[in-house]
Amino acid sequence: MAISYDKKVENQLLLDGGNEYFGSGAVVILKSLLESGISYFASYPGSPTATVTSLVDKVKHTVLRDLGIYAEESTNEAAAAAALRSSISNPIRGAVAFKVVGFNVAADAIAHIASSGVTGGALILVGEDYGCNNTIVAEKTLPYAYKSGLPILDASASLQHLSDLIHDGFALSEYSGSPVIVLVRSRVGYMSEVVKARDNKRPEKVQVKEEILEKLTFPPYTQIQEAEKYTLRLPKATEFIKEAGINRVYNHSSNKSIGIITHGVLMNMVLRALNSIDEDCPVYSLHCLYPIVENEVAEFLTDKEKVLIVEEGMPNILEKEIRSVAQANGIRTKILGKEIIPKAGEISYETVLGGLSKFFQVQVDVKGEISALEIPERRPTFCTGCPERPIFSAIKILKRQNPEARLLFSSDIGCYALGGLPPFDFKGSVTGMGTGMASSSALSRAGKNEERVISFMGDGTFWHSGLTTSVANALRNDQDAVLVVFYNYHTAMTGHQRNLSTPREVKKLKKVKEN
Ligand code: SF4
Questions:
Q1: SS3 186
Q2: How far apart are the first and last CA of the chain?
Q3: Residue 389 contacts by C-beta under 8 Å, 6 or more apart in sequence?
Q4: Lowest mean pLDDT among 115-119, 262-266, 448-452, 463-467
Q5: How far is residue 204's CA from residue 106's CA, in Å, rounded to a whole number?
Q6: Among the listed residues 220, 234, 73, the one whose alpha carbon sits nearest the alpha carbon of residue 145
């Protein structure tokens, strides 16, 4: 999503405490980071955090430079995540951002930094998009939090809440010695809201220390760090989450025998649905999804006859955690979850309403609640005037004129993946950033037909990982393929961010070469 920012935004970013401002998601996120005293910010664009990358690019040479903050548009998510190294042994605060599928690319760097732990507050802002509003596959960040032992915060549908959680996240990170994940869901990241400003904090320049030996991810320290993660850092994180009241009980109802446990923005949908069906019960909302505060959960379950867990998607980790807390504490409350809440798809108000109507056994016309209008299915397509269209048209004509040609198409992650849909129908693979051409190497040689491979890739993907993952692999393994690079000078799909093909960047590189 391309967004341009004007001078008004700079003024919002410079507001002192005591003021209020009507900010978009990107502005509120960046303002909260400035208020927290970050020294660095690194990101790779992906919705909805791509708007933060674009905003940072816009104010990098004004607001951020004046505050002494280093900001980078990283080449990919792994490079962005690696910037967190600054916080390992030094009391330096910073943040990195990318979307949920980008976590797959960043995971190696994050696993190492999560093992070392941090001294300065370190946040990982993740554009969460299980509903695939912008993302190609349905993914949740929560399993990564479990895998790497990282606290993970999930705001309600409120930018003020997201801002507060960013402040809490830095304090939590420093108190527990762990990087902290903060989810930025599409439904929050694209909101605008009146938010209270706090004073910006200029980061102090520190005498950079070499890494402390115990923080290096080498044996024997790796196992010591692993033990420290589960015996020291996560217990401290749990203590902080409880003391700071991160998780909240909403709707202190008189009906104490029934309860609902939910998380993040789903809490707002649960309250609205309760209101719609005229039912009432307390709602415990997890705004920290991991670690779970066991005694808080046990306290909520105790004395309830039945509790419904409204959790987005699968795996239903929260439900399993809550069942295990009940079992460990001898609590016999009936727990319902995925029996009535859909296993797949983004949770919306309508799905919550459907689930609650079954839980409370009331009749609801969910369809009638949605809308009387039948909305036709709309497939994603190229923008009007997109220069990629004629290329696909030309290949389609070529194919029609040469029906004997045996072609195998590979696509990658970018707008050109839409070539797989009508009217072009080039049903190539989509296997993740930079992997398109590599995904055809075995297939083109395993079949009878010896197909010729045509692979599509944008210049954003080329610089992200396509050069090393697909091109280098093809050269190393004598792959016979044609690679079409859509060279439009920008990372287009996420909102026209600059990359190494952008003329301004090319000019810079030429200057470096001349010098
Ligand atoms: S490359 Fe993508 S963003 Fe650019 S015009 Fe085409 S469809 Fe639109």
A1: helix
A2: 37
A3: 382
A4: 448-452
A5: 28
A6: 234
Residue 2 — pLDDT band, cuts 50, 70, 90? low
How sure is the predictor about 357, in pLDDT bands with cuts at 50, 70 and 90?
A: very high
- How many angstroms separate the CA atoms of 214 and 220, rounded? 9
Q: Look up residue 491 and give its two tokens.
A: 């990372």
Q: Which residue has the tokens 């194919």?
A: 399
Domains parsed from the chain with CATH numbers: 7-244 (3.40.50.970), 249-369 (3.40.50.920), 388-514 (3.40.50.970)
Ligand 1 mutation pick, 386, 418, 456, 461, max ligand atoms within 8 A of CB: 386
Tell me how far the alpha carbon of residue 364 lies from the centroid of ligand 1, in angstroms.
42
Q: Is the pLDDT of residue 193 over 90?
A: yes
Task: Using alpha carbons, list the distances in angstroms from residue 328 to 231, 232, 294, 317, 334.
Answer: 19, 22, 10, 16, 15
Sign of CA dihedral 411, 414, 418, 424: negative
Q: Is the CB of 417 under 6 A from ligand 1?
A: no
Q: Whole-prediction pTM value?
A: 0.95
pLDDT at 248 over 60: yes
DSSP-assigned letters across all residues of 354-411: HHHHHHTT----HHHHH-SPPPPP----PPTT-THHHHHHHHHHHHHH-TT--EEEE-
Mean pLDDT of all residues in the chain? 93
Residue whose pair of structure tokens reads 């961010």 in the numeric block: 497
Ligand 1: atom nearest CA of 492 is: 3
437 C-alpha to center of ligand 1: Å?
A: 21
CA distance 395 to 467: 24
Taking the C-alpha atoms of residue 488 and residue 388, their distance in angstroms, rounded to an integer, is 9
Question: What token pair was written down for 242?
Answer: 């409880």
Tokens of 437: 């051409």
Whole-angstrom distance, CA of residue 34 vs CA of residue 21: 15
Q: Work out whether strand 180-185 and strand 490-491 pair parallel, antiparallel, or are unpaired.
A: unpaired
Identify the residue whose tokens are 């990658």.
412
d(Cα 290, Cα 230) in Å, to the nearest integer? 12
Q: Is residue 257's pLDDT more than 70?
A: yes
14's tokens: 């410079």
- Give the pLDDT of residue 496: 83
Closest CA to 176 of 214, 233, 245: 233
- Measured CA to CA, the distance from residue 463 to residue 453 in angstroms comes to 21
Q: Is the pLDDT of residue 3 over 80?
A: no
How far, in Å, CA of 388 to CA of 394, rounded?
Answer: 10
Rounded (5°) CA angle 362-367-372: 135
Q: What is the CB neighbour count within 10 angstroms for residue 170? A: 24
Length of the chain in terms of residues written? 515
The reply to whether ligand 1 has any atom less than 6 angstroms from the CB of 443 is no
